[in-house]
Hints:
Layout: E1 4-13, E2 16-26, E3 31-35, H1 42-50, E4 57-62, E5 65-66, E6 77-80, H2 92-102, H3 107-120, H4 136-148, E7 154-158, H5 166-183, E8 186-191, H6 194-200, E9 203-208, E10 211-216, H7 218-223, H8 228-233, E11 240-249, E12 252-257, E13 260-262, E14 279-284, E15 289-292, E16 300-310, E17 313-320, E18 323-330, E19 340-345, E20 351-354
Parallel strand pairs: 3-8, 3-9, 6-7, 7-8
Antiparallel strand pairs: 1-2, 1-4, 4-5, 9-10, 11-12, 11-14, 12-13, 14-20, 15-19, 16-17, 16-19, 17-18
Amino acid sequence: MAKIILANLRKTYGSVVAIKDLSLEVLDGEFLVFLGPSGCGKTTTLRALAGLEVLDRGRIVIGERDVSTLPPGKRRIAMVFQSYAVFPHMRVFDNVAFGLRMRGIPGDEQRRRVEEVAALLEIADLLDRYPAQLSGGQRQRVAVARAIVMRPDVLLMDEPLSNLDALLRLHMRAELKRLHRETRSTTVYVTHDQVEALSLGDRIAVMKEGEIVQCDTPARIYDAPASRFVGSFIGSPPMNFLTGTLRTVEGRLVVEVAGGRVAPSGIERTVSRARGDGTVIVGIRPEHIDLALAPAPESIVARVVVMEPIGPQKLLTVRAGEETLKVTASLEFHAEEGQQIWLRLNPARIRLMDAATGAAIPA
């Protein structure tokens, strides 16, 4: 068993609070990703889990063991860092086997386990090379192999792909996902890259200022962000946010926004949760806005500001009243910069948020 329990973790550096009473449970065999901007506390949390940071208070349980006061070497964890940290004077085989030798594992068992892990990570033909003879992606595989060959209860990864170029990151993401599927090791992964988080994680814990603001599946994080912050941090381009006002028009509840009206699904259930003056924030993803060159029912008039071809589609920046939005469109949609168009916000995909706090209003 390698279930992890983090209970009321707190860490300060002088007057700076890096972790604010953080609690979280990571399931056995789960791939959990800590995601957030620089300085949000995600790496500090990972280092605390590894035993590299002394907490002000809190409790850490791995499996059935309380490891809160244990040194890193006693926690049965392995860590992959942002830098490869491979020994340049050692062959790949010796790099991978280093931890086994430090623990006094017999030579035959070392070779068997190294060869097993090398086959899993597809570096078996590199075992006699030195790090200088490897590409960045190969060196990162060596670092991962060195960690998992120890058969840790928990595998920790601190932005392991950030030093790779875009194509290598794409390839290594797939490799890490395959590796986890085959080993089923409990993995905690830290990144500021939301694409990595969405593609790798069973769950994502989004952090802000030392706190977890939402922890859920990638689909839920993307489709139903718990706050304006989460919606703006996840997605490329991020979610659009428009200021709207709840109104009853001809006996029907709608939101007046950007000179038009929209009726989000489940709007009747949100009325009691909105501000007294009816002001709400309307959140909508760029791909959930339909475009038209002529007026359409329940559409909003807008004007094209910028049009950017981005491979298989176009990204439009449009202006609707005082609001600026990002909208994705197919290559077949033809409009010129400065041209008037109409937007229809998909009612089922609109997310209403509190105008004061930015928190999502439950439907």
